[in-house]
Each structure stands twice: as structure tokens, then as C-alpha cells.
Design goal:
Length: about 250
């Protein structure tokens, strides 16, 4: 028993350390492209939420969402989904969240327009500052830390599990918020695990700080609960069936 225990202890730091820092310089185009893995078929119907989930969007209205001025969210709602209205700005939940399990379904515009970052770009912003990238990465090359399911500007996904534009895709995200001390010092960083279309793409990665374009800013102390945001990147990306389970105790 002792030997087994010691073996596990030796293994554990190695497993965790593998996910502790981004694998490439930010936005490096020579960062190895995640291999393509074709997921199972897209679900026709939204994935049913569990009983203890907070339903953030059930396809009917945006009452749980606000615009940047805390007014009504100005995205389009029709036929069971919401759609980014380019220029309407980012929207965020009225309610704040910390540690969560989050389910999001999204669809890139079909037919696709543009290429690289200019194709089906949006984003899921945990606590309004930690982005899991939404992008049409089906046959569309960009820098790996900016493709679909990347922790933007930090971690490429382990694989490219993208479905075609016009098909519903799922993100299942487990997010642990950073912890700050009473003096605002970082006690523990944010950690994210992501499944894209049911496939593991982020395995307990440790964020360097908030996500950003062309920089990796340091952590700044913030409240324990903050709204969840969805990005307007000027592309008519659709969302449906968004629910969250708080993992705070
Ligand atoms: Mg984005």
C-alpha cells in the first residue's frame, strides 16, 4: 500500500504540471495545429438541463441577460435561439457566478463568411474576463490559441472537434474561479476544463490571467461572483440552451 501511495504522489505533480502553462508563444501560427477529431452527429434537440441547473436561455427570451449599460440585451431571439446582432455589443447575465458547470450550444453562420478570426467569431466569457473562444474552425485555419474551444490567447484545444457551420455545437465547461486574498493577492488561479461536442479539449488548464488579444495580462482581484458574458464580434453566431450549475459551496 505504501509503495502504491508513493507512486501516486510522484505521478500527480507531473500530470498537473503538464497543464500549468500555455504550450506556445501567444497567437503563434507555428504552434502545432490540434488534430481534427470528427464528433458524433449534432443533436437535433437541445441537451436537457439537469434539475438543479439555472436556465439562462431556454430559447424564448433574454430576460436573464443585459447589455453593456445594464439595459435589455439587444440580440435577436427567434425559433428557439438567440443571434448576435452585430454592433449590439456583448451581453451578460443579470446574475453573477463563480465556480460553475456551464452548458452552451452555439452555431456558426451558414453559409460561412470570411476566414481566420473573421469567421463565426464570438466567445463565452466566464466572469466576463476568461474567454472560451467561439469560432467557425471547420476547415478554417487560425492561430491555435484562437480557434474554437481555445482558452483565448493561452491554450489551444487538445483537438479540433468542430462541426460544420449551420450545425449545433456544444460546450460543457467546468470553471474554477481564481481565489484572491484580503489584500487582493492571488491565492490560486482560474482553472478550466472544456468538452467540445462531447470531446475533451481543455483538461484542467491553469489560466495565466484574464484572456486578451496580443497580451497575457496578470490577474487583478475581482469579486467571487460575476456575470457570464457572450461576445459580439460582429458575426451572427447563434446560441441556444444555456444552463449553469453553481459549484460554489
Ligand atoms: Mg471571440
Amino acid at each position: 500500500m505504501r509503495i502504491v501511495g508513493a507512486g501516486l504522489l510522484l505521478l500527480a505533480p507531473k500530470l498537473v504540471a503538464a497543464q500549468m502553462k500555455p504550450p506556445c508563444a501567444q497567437h503563434a501560427r507555428d504552434c502545432p495545429a490540434p488534430p481534427v477529431v470528427t464528433p458524433g452527429p449534432a443533436p437535433h434537440d437541445p441537451v436537457p438541463a439537469p434539475a438543479d441547473a439555472v436556465i439562462l436561455f431556454d430559447g424564448h427570451d433574454l430576460t436573464q441577460w443585459r447589455n453593456g449599460e445594464e439595459g435589455p440585451a439587444g440580440w435577436k431571439v427567434q425559433a428557439g435561439y438567440m443571434e448576435v446582432v452585430p454592433g449590439a455589443g456583448m451581453i451578460h447575465t443579470a446574475q453573477g457566478f463563480g465556480d460553475v458547470q456551464l452548458h452552451v450550444e452555439w452555431m456558426a453562420p451558414d453559409p460561412p463568411h470570411g476566414s481566420d478570426q473573421d469567421r463565426g467569431n464570438s466567445g463565452v466569457f466566464l466572469m466576463g474576463r476568461y474567454e472560451v473562444q467561439v469560432l467557425d474552425s471547420y476547415g478554417n485555419v487560425t492561430y491555435p490559441d484562437g480557434q474554437a474551444a481555445a482558452v483565448y490567447g493561452q491554450y489551444p484545444p487538445l483537438v479540433n472537434a468542430s462541426r460544420k457551420p449551420g450545425e449545433w455545437q456544444t460546450y460543457d465547461i467546468v470553471f474554477r474561479r481564481p481565489r484572491f486574498g484580503t489584500g487582493g493577492e492571488l491565492l490560486s488561479p482560474a482553472v478550466i476544463t472544456v468538452l467540445h461536442n462531447g470531446i475533451l479539449v481543455q483538461d484542467h488548464v491553469v489560466l495565466t490571467g484574464p484572456t486578451a488579444h496580443q497580451r497575457r495580462p496578470p490577474y487583478e482581484a475581482h469579486p467571487d461572483r460575476l456575470p457570464l458574458g457572450l461576445q459580439d464580434h460582429e458575426h451572427p453566431v447563434r446560441y441556444r440552451n444555456i444552463w449553469v450549475r453553481s459549484l460554489e459551496r
